[in-house]
């Protein structure tokens, strides 16, 4: 097939590479403009841009897709289909109708569950046991189009948003290649979504990243995994601002107040929660390196009875 591809992060780059390796013609790649990144906050290219340049694909980085001249440029390509994966820009309805077969999206959830911007993180936060990839035909709505293909995977108990992004990136790459092959063979029947079963995966907000120790330890553990690698859950104890990157749950009952350090153990710092306790295994002081709790405590004196602040 002759394809226009639109995507930005590594999740999308995996799909682009798979499509090219499968023999499809990548007529044009769209990706977001370079953005500031890293400690120096210098403009950096997206993973999709780097791959497009490496493979010699035509590349555009428009700030939006609303310009009539861009529509004319896309129309002139005479693409069979546009594949969209974590692009980050809204596609106007007029663009959806440009390719012969329209536009399809690689979405990282089992639609209609978790439509929206942060399906991977919201699935972990909700305690979902599985997630997956849905290939859907794009329409006017937000992730509301008919389903072309769906594949599921189990969410492991230690999966973070980072590890799940990587797994789903590889699954998404395989799924889009499979879906296009089935489309070419006329073997796909588009299935409308059940709107009554839909849930919305809103983007992560900064206030959510502050640990509320009144919550159950299980819920905080999910949040730590969902906010890893970005932006990281955080809390403050004895004036030290700390990010928490890895935890486990201690189901022993405790009478201490939420946020209070119950024990300092070889396996981590044990903190009381609304229910049960949380063992902090890997932490990071603001501006410092990620350290196992035992290493962190070599330079910071924390003891039983000290209490982490909890948002009101």
TrEMBL record:
Keywords in alphabetical order: Protein biosynthesis, Transferase
Keyword Protein biosynthesis carried by entry: yes
GO terms for MF: methionyl-tRNA formyltransferase activity
Superkingdom: Bacteria
InterPro entries according to UniProt: Fmt, Formyl_trans_C, Formyl_transf_N, Formyl_transf_N_sf, Formyl_transferase-like_C_sf, Met-tRNA-FMT_C, Met-tRNA-FMT_N
Catalysis: reaction(s): L-methionyl-tRNA(fMet) + (6R)-10-formyltetrahydrofolate = N-formyl-L-methionyl-tRNA(fMet) + (6S)-5,6,7,8-tetrahydrofolate + H(+)
Family label: Belongs to the Fmt family.
This protein's name: Methionyl-tRNA formyltransferase
Upper classification of the organism: Bacteria, Pseudomonadati, Pseudomonadota, Betaproteobacteria, Nitrosomonadales
Gene responsible for this protein: fmt
């Amino acid at each position: 097939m002759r394809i226009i591809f639109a995507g930005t992060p590594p999740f999308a780059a995996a799909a682009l590479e798979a499509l090219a390796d499968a023999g499809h013609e990548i007529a044009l790649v769209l990706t977001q403009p370079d953005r500031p990144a890293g400690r120096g906050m210098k403009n950096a290219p997206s993973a999709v841009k780097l791959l497009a340049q490496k493979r010699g694909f035509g590349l555009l980085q428009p700030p939006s897709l609303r310009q009539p001249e861009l529509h004319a440029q896309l129309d002139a390509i005479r693409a069979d289909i546009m594949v969209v994966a974590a692009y980050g820009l809204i596609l106007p309805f007029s663009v959806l109708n440009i390719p012969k077969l329209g536009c399809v999206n690689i979405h990282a959830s089992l639609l209609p569950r978790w439509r929206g911007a942060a399906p991977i993180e919201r699935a972990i936060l909700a305690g979902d046991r599985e997630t997956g990839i849905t290939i859907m035909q794009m329409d006017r709505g937000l992730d509301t189009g008919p389903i072309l293909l769906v594949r599921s995977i189990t969410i492991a108990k230690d999966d973070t948003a980072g590890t799940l992004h990587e797994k789903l990136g590889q699954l998404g790459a395989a799924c889009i290649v499979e879906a296009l092959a089935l489309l070419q063979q006329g073997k796909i029947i588009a299935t409308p979504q059940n709107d009554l079963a839909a849930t919305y995966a809103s983007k992560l907000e900064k206030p959510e990243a502050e640990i509320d120790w009144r919550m159950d330890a299980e819920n905080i553990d999910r949040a730590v995994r969902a906010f890893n690698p970005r932006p990281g859950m955080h809390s403050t104890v004895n004036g030290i601002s700390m990010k928490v990157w890895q935890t486990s749950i201690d189901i022993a009952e405790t009478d201490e107040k939420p946020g209070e350090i119950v024990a300092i153990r070889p396996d981590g710092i044990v903190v009381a929660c609304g229910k049960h306790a949380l063992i902090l295994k890997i932490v990071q002081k603001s501006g410092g390196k990620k350290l196992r709790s035992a290493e962190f405590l070599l330079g910071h004196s924390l003891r039983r009875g000290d209490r982490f602040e909890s948002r009101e």
